[in-house]
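Design request, tokens follow.
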């Protein structure tokens, strides 16, 4: 999905919420170094499960600076994990693939992969993993501004987190739910969850989290006209965010405070905080924050009839809008390229699986030809001067091959029927064995006796001819 910046972006659109996508917190240089180290390990590794683990770790280290590389390794990890029935590897690989597509801006593909991961996690007893993927689905819907769908999955994640006491995600889920309700302008609910996130943030003694929660409360109070509470939360949030160097959220908080002062017709304060937001965004390269502040200042100066200043910031807004739209077009091309890369790798895997199936079918065919061939060869030997024990052994082998072939042929059907559940597979094969073993013994007795009797009869006939 591409974002368009032709209109004023509502305050809080890019807000501060905490994503639980698997991410590296190191710098790009450290990520590259880590990726190089993992790549060397991968070349030496022989065990498939370890290869899967190294590939998803490599993809995780690379997705911020090289999404193409991350896609390649994560997709390879996913296919290898599927081929060896390694569920944890499949789940991790799907998560990193989804994260990489999310970074590119390919939200539909990220959503599709997260749903695949969700299907896996729903069958497992790992509450943290289940809560994580449910929250990530909600985050993608939130990026697409589908706040009702986001709330649906946030609520499911919240239930898992509360029921299983997943402490890692308590702040994130409360903040995300508060953010969604804030965008839907449902103050009672946004207040409830922002307050809950603030309590958790204070328990964690995390200044950044405290600042984020207070920014959310500042937005909510401002919207319902409780200016005193909004002002207090915004100003406290600025202190906490400054101490934690969270400039991106700080841009939003100061712009929120500027909006509050603008509503109060305190033009000097509104202008001061809007310019502060613009300066922070410009310094750190947050073009979207810079654009928001420039748009605010344009409208602010128009309101107070300072046309020259309004025109200047309008020019800044247009330039930023062109830059953002240019980046959007580049991102759209990246989305198309990533889809094609994903499709081509999928086709390669389909061809590999098809070749593997053909090879397997050929083996079944050869075994199917070999078994009757062995039986016929045994019958032919029974007419020759071969020791009777050799004939008995060959007869038994013919029957063993036949019954084992039958079991091998049935196994895929039984596995699919039972959903690869070991208990049910064992029960079915025990039942099959209960039928096959008596048949096996009877057939073995009949065949060996038939062959040996034929030999005895031929020997007696030969002696009789010799006497005559």
């Amino acid at each position: 999905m591409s974002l368009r910046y032709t209109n004023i972006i509502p305050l809080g659109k890019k807000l501060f919420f905490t994503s639980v996508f698997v991410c590296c917190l190191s710098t790009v240089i450290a990520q590259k170094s880590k990726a190089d180290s993992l790549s060397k390990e991968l070349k030496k590794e022989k065990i498939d499960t370890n290869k899967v683990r190294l590939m998803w770790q490599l993809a995780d280290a690379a997705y911020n600076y090289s999404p193409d590389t991350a896609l390649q390794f994560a997709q390879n990890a996913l296919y290898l994990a599927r081929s060896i029935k390694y569920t944890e590897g499949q789940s991790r690989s799907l998560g990193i693939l989804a994260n990489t597509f999310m970074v590119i801006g390919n939200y539909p593909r990220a959503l599709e992969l997260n749903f695949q991961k969700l299907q896996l996690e729903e069958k497992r007893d790992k509450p943290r993993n289940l809560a994580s993927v449910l929250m990530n689905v909600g985050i993608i819907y939130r990026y697409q501004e589908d706040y009702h769908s986001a709330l649906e999955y946030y609520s499911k994640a919240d239930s898992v987190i509360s029921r299983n006491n997943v402490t890692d995600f308590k702040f994130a889920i409360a903040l995300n739910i508060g953010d969604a309700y804030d965008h839907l302008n449902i103050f009672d609910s946004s207040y409830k969850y922002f307050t809950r996130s603030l309590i958790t943030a204070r328990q964690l003694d995390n200044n950044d989290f405290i600042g984020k929660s207070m920014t959310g409360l500042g937005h909510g109070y401002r919207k319902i006209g409780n200016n005193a509470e909004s002002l207090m939360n915004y100003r406290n949030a600025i202190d906490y965010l400054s101490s934690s160097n969270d400039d991106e959220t700080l841009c939003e908080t100061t712009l929120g405070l500027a909006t509050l002062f603008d509503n109060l017709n305190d033009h000097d304060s509104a202008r001061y905080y809007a310019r502060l937001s613009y300066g922070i965004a410009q310094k750190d390269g947050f073009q979207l924050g810079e654009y928001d502040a420039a748009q605010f200042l344009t409208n602010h100066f128009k309101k107070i009839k300072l046309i020259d200043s309004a025109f200047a910031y309008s020019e800044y807004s247009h330039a930023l809008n062109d830059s953002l739209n240019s980046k959007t077009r580049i991102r759209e091309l990246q989305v198309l390229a990533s889809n094609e890369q994903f499709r081509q790798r999928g086709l390669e895997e389909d061809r590999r699986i098809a070749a593997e199936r053909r090879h397997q079918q050929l083996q079944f065919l050869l075994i199917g030809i070999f078994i009757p061939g062995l039986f016929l060869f045994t019958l032919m030997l029974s007419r020759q001067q071969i020791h009777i024990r050799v004939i008995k052994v060959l007869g038994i082998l013919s029957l063993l091959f036949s019954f084992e072939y039958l079991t091998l042929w049935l196994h895929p059907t039984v596995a699919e029927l039972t959903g690869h559940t070991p208990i049910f597979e064992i029960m079915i094969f025990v039942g099959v064995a209960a039928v096959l073993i008596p048949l096996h013994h009877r057939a073995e007795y009949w065949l060996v006796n038939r062959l040996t009797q034929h030999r005895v009869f031929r020997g007696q006939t030969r002696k009789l001819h010799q006497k005559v």
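Comment from the thread starter after seeing the answer: thanks! Residues 382-467 form one domain.
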